[in-house]
């Protein structure tokens, strides 16, 4: 894996959190993007070569709202950049990690993504992401 690409933070109110993280990081979000398949609205801020992704659920039944209901707002996942997501998925599967996707799917910010179950990684939801060229 190359580096931490972004850290995903589950929030209740995207407008309010954009304001908090803009102040905190001294920058403004460079994009908002709806991930329709996941029912989440995302907002991205750059911090050096990494990013912070703020996530808010857009309906009553999505991973972010469920997470907040159970655990409150906070760090939802850590995403690692990979150059060959198929090879990494194969490597992790063979090593016994529980992948949440059979095949990579289209994620926010022009990425192919795959999640690894938090029970496989000491309680942390892991995302693999590969830039789509
Ligand atoms: N980080 C750490 N632990 C988490 C978690 C997270 N983000 N989400 C859930 N969990 C915990 C639950 O609290 C639960 O813990 P306990 O058993 O100790 O109570 C455990 O994981 C398993 O929960 P589950 O009932 O099997 O599964 P859930 O229905 O809670 O779903 C998960 C959890 C990770 C499988 C599901 O959220 C998922 O498939 N996530 C991937 C997709 C996603 O997160 N999409 C939103 C982001 C999209 C984007 O970045 O664009």
Summarize the structure.
The protein contains three helices and eight strands. The protein has 133 residues and is α+β, with helices and mostly antiparallel strands. Carboxymethyldethia coenzyme *A is lined by residues 8, 35, 38, 40, 42, 55, 63-64, 66-67, 70, 76-77, 100, 107-108, 115, 117-118, 123-125.
Overview of this protein structure:
- With 133 residues, the protein is an alpha+beta fold.
- 23% of the residues lie in helices and 39% in strands.
- The chain contains 3 helices and 8 strands.
- It has helices at residues 14-25, 63-71, 85-94; strands at 3-10, 31-35, 40-47, 50-57, 74-81, 105-107, 111-116, 126-131.
- The protein has an 8-stranded mixed beta sheet with strand order 2-3-4-1-5-8-7-6.
- It is globular, with a radius of gyration of 14 Å.
- It starts with a strand and ends with a strand.
- The mean pLDDT is 97.
- The structure holds carboxymethyldethia coenzyme *A.
- Carboxymethyldethia coenzyme *A binds next to strand 3, helix 2 and strand 5.
- Carboxymethyldethia coenzyme *A is lined by residues 8, 35, 38, 40, 42, 55, 63-64, 66-67, 70, 76-77, 100, 107-108, 115, 117-118, 123-125.
Query: What's the main sheet like?
Result: 8 strands, mixed
**Global morphology:** globular
- Strand fraction band? 35-45%
What order do the helices and strands follow?
Answer: EHEEEHEHEEE
Q: Count every helix, treating DSSP H or I runs of 4 or more residues as helices.
A: 3
What percent of the residues sit in helical stretches (DSSP H or I)? 10-25%
Give the end-to-end Cα distance, rounded to a whole number of Å.
Answer: 18 Å
Ligand inventory reads:
carboxymethyldethia coenzyme *A
Strand numbers in spatial order across the main sheet: 2-3-4-1-5-8-7-6
Helix/strand class: alpha+beta
Which consecutive residue ranges, at least 5 long each, have pLDDT under 50?
A: none
Q: Tell me, rounded to a whole number, the average pLDDT.
A: 97
What is Rg? 14 Å
Total number of β-strand segments?
Answer: 8
